[in-house]
Amino acid sequence: MKLKIIIAILALLAITANAKIVNLDDLDRMITSGEKDYYIWKFISSPNTTTEDAKKAIEQASYVNGSMAKAYEAKTGIHIKAGTFCKTSDCAPPPPSNNSVQGNRYFYQGIKFVKNNELQQAINYFDYSRKITDKPQDRDRATFWVYLLSKDK
């Protein structure tokens, strides 16, 4: 019985000794990915993170989920809408795992950008949707929207 308790305590000590503390420099070196978004959420949720560091970190997120939005609002007091994608022009969407599903996902995100009158971002998402989708009708749909927004003859 005592041996089990000692082993459990040693295991917990080993785990906490190996736990990585994430800082803003570590986040800057990471590539845009879902894993980076997890570390951004972990960084923002940390009690040692300042408001300015949280603002810099959230700008690097490729996708802001509900947990990240709540942590950011708790830290800064600024409400950010969950479900938003990276808004920088050089931000490439993450590589797709299922082309048809991902193509639709980026197409509908493009529609959201059109509704918000962010036409260049919408064109980028429609173009990406057109390139990755498997279905001809989805390619045609995305091509139509790229044509419609860019007015390219």
Features:
mainly alpha, about 150 residues, two-stranded antiparallel ribbon
Verbal overview:
This protein is mainly α. It contains eight helices and two strands, in the order ααααβαβααα. Strands 1-2 form a two-stranded antiparallel ribbon. Helix 3 runs parallel beside helix 5, helix 4 packs antiparallel against helix 5 and helix 7 runs antiparallel to helix 8. The longest helix has 17 residues. The protein is elongated, with a radius of gyration of 20 Å.
Tell me the major beta sheet. 2 strands, antiparallel
**Number of β-strand runs:** 2
Helix content: 55-70%
Strand content: under 5%
Mean pLDDT: 83
- The radius of gyration computed from the alpha-carbon positions, rounded to a whole number of angstroms, is 20 Å
Shape estimate: elongated
Our count of domains comes out at 2
Query: What class, by secondary structure content?
Result: mainly alpha
Number of helices: 8
Lateral strand order in the biggest sheet: 1-2
The arrangement of helices and strands along the chain is HHHHEHEHHH
Which residue ranges are poorly predicted, with pLDDT under 50 across at least 5 consecutive positions?
none
Distance between the termini: 78 Å
Organism: sediment metagenome
Protein name: Lytic murein transglycosylase
What's this model, at a glance?
The protein has 153 residues and is mostly helical.
